UniProtKB/TrEMBL annotation:
Protein name per UniProt: BioF2-like acetyltransferase domain-containing protein
């Protein structure tokens, strides 16, 4: 039995561990992420250096707490509490599960249920408990997926290996993988804080797409969240420019919610992003 086979367990027993904000901040710092404590919450640098948001994006802050987390940052945003939503100047368009406690096969569209059944016949879905499988087969999967989607830059092999090892140093990531005849067809990751899970990255090899492993992986991740007592799964942000992805998430039973936020951005950066990366600007601010 190879090391890659040893470092897996069946997805049916997987759980997504739930951390507090403080615990997540400590784990993120260990991973090398720039994390600041400000206004009673923890903020992390995301995207281009100098932009910050709370590590728990949906924590819910008051307008008084949403202020510049560092004197040198060029932008920041944070979700508001329901009671202070009237003070919002934008929104973050999340894609989330409705009622995760009752999320099951019947939550999917009829077409998606058929695809889930096909996936269950063809794909073995497992939770990774160590880096062996990804170090062995993951890089080629990521290169394939990113060459197809082009949603971000392909990392170097060394950078990829370093990121894979971070998955297992803090025990807060849940990584599910789909195996087709023992070969890695794709995987996704996520973590949870204060009852809300965030799906972060997903990579699917082109050759494995006909097995519908994306359907199976997302469904099983939601079930792992349910077993952990998590009340909501955030499956990324609304990608209005990718209709096929929106249809997939709709078929999976997810909904788009526009969460009120307070945000601020350097005028020059704002103008550049709005002009040259309009869809990213929409996801950052909720504005066109």
């Amino acid at each position: 039995m190879g090391m890659a086979e040893v470092q897996v367990r069946e997805a049916s027993v997987a759980r997504v561990p739930v951390l507090t904000e403080r615990e997540l901040a400590e784990r993120r710092r260990e991973e090398g992420v720039r994390v600041l404590e400000h206004g009673g919450h923890y903020w992390e640098q995301v995207g281009a250096p100098g932009f910050f948001q709370p590590i728990h994006l949906l924590a819910g802050l008051t307008p008084q707490e949403v202020t510049r987390p560092a004197p040198w940052c060029w932008g920041y945003r944070a979700a508001l509490t329901p009671e202070t939503a009237d003070a919002a100047n934008g929104f973050v368009p999340i894609v989330r599960s409705p009622g995760l406690d009752t999320y099951d096969v019947d939550s999917l569209s009829a077409n998606r249920r058929n695809k889930l059944r096909k996936c269950q016949r063809l794909v073995r879905i497992v939770q990774l408990t160590g880096p062996a499988l990804l170090l062995e087969q993951g890089y080629d999967t990521v290169v394939d997926a990113l060459s197809r989607t082009e949603h971000k830059k392909v990392p170097s092999r060394a950078a990829y290996a370093a990121d894979v090892k971070k998955y297992f140093q803090g025990a807060h990531w849940c990584v599910l993988a789909g195996l087709v005849d023992g070969r890695l067809g794709g995987y996704l990751d996520g973590y949870a804080v204060d009852g809300i899970a965030y799906g972060v990255c997903a990579y699917y090899a082109t050759w494995a797409l006909p097995t519908n492993l994306a359907t199976g992986l997302v469904f099983e991740f939601a079930q792992a969240c349910r077993r952990g007592g998590i009340r909501m799964l955030v499956n990324g942000l609304h990608s209005r420019e990718v209709p096929s992805l929106n249809q997939f998430k709709d078929d999976m039973g997810f909904v788009v919610e526009r969460v009120p936020i307070r945000w601020s951005m350097n005028p020059l950066a704002r103008a550049l992003i709005r002009r040259h990366r309009a869809h990213a600007y929409y996801r950052l601010t909720g504005q066109a």
